[in-house]
Amino acid sequence: MRDELDRPWEHPAHPEGGSAHSPREHGEAGHGGYEVHEDDGSLNLPDNWLLSHDPAWPADNTDPEATGTDLPAAAFSAYPSVRYRDEVAAGSGEVGLADELLGPADPRKPPARTRIQRGIGKAFMIFGGTVVALLFVYLVDLITSLGDVPRGVTVAGVEVGGLNRADAEEKLRDELGPQLTDPLPVRAGDVTTRLDPADAGLGLDWAGTVERAGNQPIDPLSRLTSLFTTREIGVVSSADDDVLREAINGLAAGEINHEVREGDVGFRTVEGSAVEPFPIMPRQGQRLTDVDGAMKQIKADWLADKGVTLDVDVTPAKTTEEAVRRALEQTKPLVSGPVTVRADKTTATLTPRHISDAMQHEPSDEGALQVTLDRAKLQDVLIPRLGETERRASNAELVFAGSRPSVEPSKEGRQIDWQETFAPFFTVAGKQEGRTLEVVYQVQAPDVSTEELRKLGMKEVVGEFTTGGLSGAAARNVSTMAAAVTGSVVRPGDTFSLEAATGPRTSSKGYVEAPLYSGGTGPRVIGGGVSQLTSTLYNAAYEAGLKDAGHRAHPTFVDRYPAGRDAVSHLPDGSSVDMSLTNNLDSGVAVQAWTSGDSVTVRLWSTKQYRVSGSTSDRTDVKSPPVKRDRGPGCEETSGAEGFTVTDTRVVKALRGDRVVDRQSTTVTYRPVPRVVCESGDGGGNDGGDDGGGDPRRPGWPFLPGDERSQQVDRSRG
């Protein structure tokens, strides 16, 4: 009906959309009538339009009979309806603000400004109402929750928010109490372990834990967010710090701390000598160093369901797990079977066990795992079989079989070149068939070749000397040393050492115990008596014109040697002393020595270059032998010997002409040898005074070991 009144020209009575009395017809547009808005079909009516334009609408009395007017000839619906500007409340001629905002919508579209004003007013009313409602809710919530634990608070996973403090403490005791004895899960780096709370001195302060939660917040925003969030406050522990610290240190030392482990490939024996490689994954090194921090963390979280996580200092491994897997795949074929090593007609076998023992996996800075081989371990396996295929090089030697020395040719040797032999190992061992290595040899040249020895010019005798008086065990020792020194070759400019040429004098080399000095005197030592060969060699070198590079004369004169021209190999205490010579000739020098009967001869071969002459001075500072009286049952009388000083001078001239090449004087002081007198009876005897202080235990030897007066050698060149 409202629509019919609003748009009478669209009423179904006028199907074409027109009307018997269209607005244009009744409104007389342009002449103070109404206008139809084409955009929405609404009308703009002037004031009193209805009274002035509707002939059927009475001005005062609405009763047609009273007014005497005719009834409307057309239906009421044919007249345009009026869209009122305001809805007036019943019994009132004014429109209120609330009615305007909350009442039914005005069917007419108000101006834009009016619509904005109405929208703002409505928004303010809604906002104000909302604020008042929220404030009321906040005040009610604040009053009712005073003294309670803040909402959203949890302790070790237990919700206590919103409870009063007594209830919160009771709930914590009920739910956390049984957990106080449960082992505490502890994670530290890559280690997961457990800690017994009782052993660690841990307990719980129930009231302190609830107190930590604090009070309900006054801040409205905090109270609002607490409805949708939770806040874990942890527990307040009662702990014995000393016990807890000790427990943490024990846990760190026993389980948490460990060194870094690089990736590797291990091997296990599966059957016989077969092996199976397996991966050893890298593991970081770690150490718990912040014990105070760990104590704090445990106190706060030891009742949490997730346990406690402790910080550790980490040392990362160089290798990666992927590198270990690659090395494993590379290793598998290498130990899949034995490898044969062949040297001429001799073979040896490396089993998978041998190979795995020698394999090494070294980490690189780039994280890779390099497969290498410890050749020494494989050599130890192969040498017992393949070592016999090696040959030692032999030097050319002088052979004294006739009147002249002959040269025995040198021989090359060969030695296994292990580096070259194992060079193709990974290629050979990586195959399923043809797993054979061929031995590679390295030629070993002799130290002295045949040609070199012949060029040294050792063709004639340049010095020779013979001494006699050998007897007993001393003769055997001299013969042993003569054999050891024979064949020694001294190149021009080189120095010959008797100790180096013969080596230590031991029983394993054929030396025996014998008196230290000639005539069977002195203590018995291994190699005793060899000083006779030393003195004989010294005199042969003297005759050849070789340069003395160091020697020591006897402490007392021995008449088998020229005065001032002797040398010893033993000191009075039995220790060794060296005698050395320098080859100052242009040719090499070869040593030949042998014993015959009671004598020993030393012959030096070279090419003659000098003429040598020697002279001995008169004896000076002659001292008579002191008398040594002895009553012992083993006393042997001796005549003793004088002590004196003598100088020997050697002149070396060129082979042709009288040019003096070298002149050397050597002064030696010999001590007297006591004369031993054997006595019987109890009276008298040696008083150790005027007779020179001889030692009755050593007849003929008046000086104790180490006495610096036992000898004196002076050398001067002229």
TrEMBL record:
Hydrolase listed as a keyword: no
TM region positions: 123-140
InterPro entries xref list: Glycopeptide_resist_protein (IPR052913), Vancomycin_resist_VanW (IPR007391), YoaR-like_PG-bd (IPR022029)
One family name in Pfam for this protein: VanW
Region (Disordered), start-end ranges: 1-39, 611-643, 664-718
Protein name according to UniProt: Vancomycin resistance protein YoaR
Residues in YoaR-like putative peptidoglycan binding domain copies: 365-423
Domain of life assignment: Bacteria
Signal peptide start and end residues: none
Compositionally biased intervals (Basic and acidic residues): 1-14, 22-39, 618-634, 706-718
Comp. bias regions, Low complexity: 666-677
Key words of the record: Membrane, Transmembrane, Transmembrane helix
